[in-house]
Amino acid sequence: MNFTKEYLDRKDMSLIPPTYVTDRAVLDDPAGDYTDENRLFQGIPGIECTPKGTYYMVFYTGGQSENIGNFLLLFRADDPHRFGKPFMAVVPPDREFTRCFDPCLWVDPLGRLNLFWAQSFGNFDGRLGVWRAVCEDPDSETPRFDPPERIANGIMMNKPTVVRGGSWLLPCAIWAPASSELNDIPEEKFANVYRSDDNGKTFRLYGHADCPRRGIDEHMIYERSDGSLRMLIRTSPGIGESTSYDGGKTWSDGKDSGLGGPDSRFCVRKLKSGRILLVNHYDFRERDHLTAMLSEDDGETWKGFLLLDERARVSYPDAAQSPDGMINIIYDWNRKDDKEILLARVTEEDILAGRLTDSRSELKLLLNKATGTPDKQ
Q1: How far apart are CA 272 and CA 94, in angstroms?
Q2: Residue-wise pLDDT tens digits, 209-266
Q3: % of the chain exceeding 90 in pLDDT
Q4: Cα separation of 73 and 123, whole Å?
Q5: Cα 362 to the chain's mean position, in Å?
Q6: Among residues 36, 69, 30, which one has the least CA distance to residue 372?
Q7: How many CB atoms lie within 10 A of CB 165?
Q8: Which pLDDT score is estimated for 177?
Q9: Are 179 and 49 in contact (CB under 8 A)?
Q10: 3-state class of 353 per DSSP?
Q11: Dihedral of the alpha carbons of 354, 367, 115, 109, in degrees to the nearest 10
């Protein structure tokens, strides 16, 4: 593609920090595109819960699809049934040329809420960038985030892992099949691991894994009982895997994990009980039959298989365990038509039984629905 000099001169706009929009009048403006009534698409959600029980939700939206002009919306609630309106939007430096997308929420070991997202010039500029903003007191009724900082190349849409010894491992990636004349970094086009040994003060590229037929990596890492690390990686046949025995520095040759999947995001997390949670599509035809399962042997075998949502076009789960032990699994449904963000609240016993057994548990809890249509724009 032949880019004009004017366009090339703008490509580093993605390195400019985005803007936080917190003004209630702006967020609620009936003529603006932050309101439910005006948004044309939304999805790719994240969820987190603080040790004191404050819930946060994030997803991205803006425009008609996943492209230039996307921005993030962030919500807070003391009860996941009452998220209400967003309290903040994260808007790219110039919506005509840049985008903010693929967000991730994570409470770190110090109790701070970390908001991560990707930022790009155009839809994909080859370099991308993982940005981070920190809220020191996420249980405040008026949470405030520090100024955003760019911490890595690539995209990180899944939660970091804290390994024994306290290091943080961040699953960042530059997608293998995607390329751009704007920025070409072949040495980083892997399922990368960034590491912090100082509680997030600094980050460094530490290692990477590769896997046959990987594309949009969306990889995740968990630590096994023997201290080794298992990385699961999205691939076109389903889910690939790689193992590290040196804390994430080097990784085994990637191979198929046998877990299957429709080439879509999944979620794997270690729970407080020590069990491993996996949310994936199971017994599927496409992006349907979103299912939760548990492992008691570091992911060697899985049991439970609780069906969360059987419908087509349910996708992109993220999960957080709240202080009451509930597992909160967020996902999207039909991003451009129904435009719904939903939640499953379940227990480990529910998953093991393959059905809801706890009176607190519920499926398909609607958290947010956008109703915008092109004629309203």
Answers
A1: 41
A2: 999 999 999 999 999 999 999 999 999 999 999 999 999 999 999 999 999 999 999 9
A3: 94
A4: 19
A5: 22
A6: 36
A7: 8
A8: 77
A9: no
A10: helix
A11: -50
Residue 86: strand, helix, or coil? coil
> In this structure, what DSSP letter does residue 187 have?
G
Residue with tokens 């912090």: 196
Non-local (6+) Cβ contacts of 349 within 8 A are: 357, 358
| Of 228, 334, 327, residue with least CA distance to 288 | 334
Nearest Cα neighbor of 329 from 311, 349, 306, 302 is 306
Q: Residue 377's pLDDT is what?
A: 54
119, pLDDT greater than 60: yes
- DSSP conformation letters of 243-291: EESSTTSS-PPPEE-S---SS---EEEE-TTSPEEEEEE-S-SSS--EE
Task: Please report, to the nearest 10 degrees, the dihedral formed by the alpha carbons of residues 266, 272, 274, 280 taken in order.
Answer: -10
Amino acid 82: pLDDT: 94
**How many other C-beta atoms can be found within 10 angstroms of the C-beta atom of residue 327?**
24
Which amino acid, residue 75? F
C-alpha 57: how far from its chain's center?
11
DSSP label at residue 298: T
Distance between CA 233 and CA 242 in Å, rounded? 8
CA distance linking residue 83 with residue 101, whole number of Å: 21
Which DSSP category does 189 fall into? -
| Residue 160 scores a pLDDT above 60 | yes
The yes-or-no verdict on residue 55 having pLDDT over 60 is yes
Residue 81 DSSP SS3: coil
* pLDDT, averaged across the chain: 96
CB 232, CB 220: distance < 8 Å: yes
> Mind listing the domains of the chain with CATH numbers?
1-141 (2.120.10.10)
